[in-house]
Amino acid sequence: MSELHRVRRNIVSKFAGEALVRGLGALTFFCLARLMGAGDFGAYVAALAFAGVFVVFHEAGLHFLLAREVARRHAAAGTYTRQVAILKGIVSAAILVAAPAAAWGAGMEPGMVRLVLLATVALNAASFVEMLGAALQGLERMDAEAVIRGGHKAAQFLLPIGAWLLARRAGWVLAAQAAASIVALAVAYGWTRGRGFLPAARRSPGGFRRSIMPWLAEVWPLTAVAVCMTLAARVDVIFLSRFRGMAETGLYGAASRLFELTQVLPALLMGVLFPVLSRLAVGDDGARRDRTYERLFRWFAVLAVPAAVLLYAWSGPIIRVCYGAAYGDSAGILRVLAPAMGFSFMGYLFINALIASDRQTTFLAVTVVGCTANIVANLLLVPAYGASGAAWARVLTEAVFFAGGLAVFHRIVSRVPVGLLTRVLLASAVSVGAAWAAGGSLIGGTLAALAYLPILWLLRVIAADDLAFGLRLLRSRR
Fold first, then answer.
1. Any residues with CB less than 8 A from the CB of 356 and at least 6 apart, and which?
2. How far, in Å, CA of 204 to CA of 168, rounded?
3. SS (H, E, C) 377-407
4. Ramachandran region of residue 196, left (φ > 0), alpha (ψ -120 to 50) or beta?
5. CA 146 from centre of chain
6. What is the pLDDT of residue 467?
7. Cys-Cys link to 431, which of 13, 119, 330, 452 (CB 3.0-4.6 A)?
8. Nearest 5 degrees, angle CA 423-CA 426-CA 428?
9. What is the model's pTM?
10. Do 414 and 290 contact (CB within 8 A), yes or no?
């Protein structure tokens, strides 16, 4: 298969697969929110948030490394996947004990402790499905990744919805979610091996210890980063459930979930580009790498501000369509969260660039600062202001991550021209200011978002050859 054909297949597969995965995930969330009501839904999202802080110890860091190493050495994909699976299994067993024990130690009621245990099982099982997806991403077989992840999400939609309709209990929903992931993992593993997507694993010389230690040596900075970022993303829900009750937690969880769904586009782009960036990081053409990152910075700047402005303007209708009138108060929360969307878009570029360039330890300092700012802000704002305070804490956290990530990226990976950054900030100020002056008007906000692109063109931030450059980048040969 030619390079161009493979890239086209990967782009189509990644976008179609991610649309399916995100769409089914969102549909599941929306349906559960409507069926369960704010109180039960709040307990459900609180249990998932608490368990997610523990499951991340064997998730994001290892998945990034697996995709990166497989992208660099396809022949060792089966061996790398086996080594990562063993390491994840060991950590998963410890987490199944640690998460409910921590919930009990934090003073949660026995019912909530049981929900945390079930959520831990569900998230652990789902993480192994995502591990297979990471290996296939590194192999640039994103068509197979889309099939596996899409089937997994379909099972996670059907079983939990059916469990709620049968039992009307949050625990049954989480148990069904765990069962869906376990079944999907078994089917996906058999299908992957049967199709020959992963080469057979080879035993590493030196035994188990020598094969696992290199992963531990490289993954700990990424794991620390992932823990900090997960805390920053989940501590708001945990604090709300402790200080303000499950109903308000459910309202905030609904808005927060929509905010997370807005990250689909940058996640898709970086999913396709990450193997390319990994190869550029070990190449000798530094000038080409700098040109690539400058263009990527411009592309992400084009997306970030209009997306945030549109989310602000359309928050009311979005909430009504997705959750119904019972969640009307979530619209105000989503409107507060909108500025964080622009910051987080750019953060995707910085995080993936640093990981692709083996700069995990450097970025760890940024995430520690951002996580600390988030915890402090939530402690100060949630007890007094509830869900609105949690939303403002998220905005502050994303701004800290953006500023720190930009500074580190500019200093270590690729310098961002000051003139380019200034023009982007000027165009952003005009668009955001116009949306604010419109007072939340749908028409005014939409026009303010659309005006951003011609302003960028007039300021020469985007150029006619940007699209052609992107196609040349994606055709990059190993």
1. 68, 274, 277, 278, 280, 281
2. 49
3. HHHHHHHHHHHHHHHHHHHHHHHHHHHHHHH
4. left
5. 16
6. 58
7. 452
8. 110
9. 0.68
10. yes
Per-residue model confidence as pLDDT tens digits over 317-341: 888 888 888 888 888 899 889 888 8
Distance between CA atoms of 173 and 166, rounded to whole angstroms? 10
Taking the C-alpha atoms of residue 197 and residue 135, their distance in angstroms, rounded to an integer, is 10
Buried b (16+ CB within 10 A) or exposed e, 182-216: bebbeebbeebeeeebbeeeeebeeeeeebbeebe
The amino acid at residue 232 is: A
Task: Give the whole-angstrom CA distance, residue 407 versus residue 401.
Answer: 10
Tokens representing 34 are 């409507």
CA dist., res. 378 & res. 393, Å (int): 6
Instruction: Give the Cα separation of 181 and 148 in Å (integer).
Output: 11
DSSP state of 81: H
Q: What's the mean pLDDT in 117-126?
A: 90
CA distance 405 to 300: 14
Three-state DSSP state, 205: coil
Give SS3 for 198: coil
107 — alpha (psi -120 to 50), left (phi > 0) or beta? left
How many residues appear in the chain? Answer: 478
CA dist list (Å): 144 to 135, 138, 191? 10, 12, 10
What gap in Å lies between CA 160 and CA 145, rounded to an integer?
Answer: 23
Q: How far from chain centre, in Å, is Cα 135?
A: 17
Q: Could you give the CA distance from residue 279 to residue 117 in angstroms, rounded to a whole number?
A: 40
Handedness of CA 259, 264, 269, 275 (dihedral sign): positive
Give the pLDDT confidence of 360-415 residue by residue, as tens digits. Answer: 677 777 878 888 888 899 999 998 899 899 999 999 988 888 888 888 777 777 77
Conformational region of residue 200, where left means phi above 0, alpha means psi within -120 to 50, and beta covers everything else: beta
Cα 195 from Cα 277, distance rounded (Å): 28
The proportion of the chain whose per-residue pLDDT surpasses 90, expressed as a percent, equals 7
CB-based burial of residue 330 (10 Å sphere; 0-12 exposed, 13-18 middle, 19+ buried)?
Answer: buried
Alpha-carbon distance of 370 to 230, in angstroms, equals 11
For helices 466-474 and 264-281, the axis angle rounded to 10 degrees is 60
The model's pLDDT over 97-117, given as tens digits with 9 standing for 90+, comes to 998 898 888 888 888 889 999
- 401 touches 347 (CB < 8 A): yes
Tell which residue, 23, 40, 366, has the closest CA to residue 172. 40
Rounded Cα distance between 240 and 394, Å, is: 13
Alpha-helical (H) ranges within 244-329 are 246-261, 264-281, 286-313, 315-323
Amino acid identity at 96: L
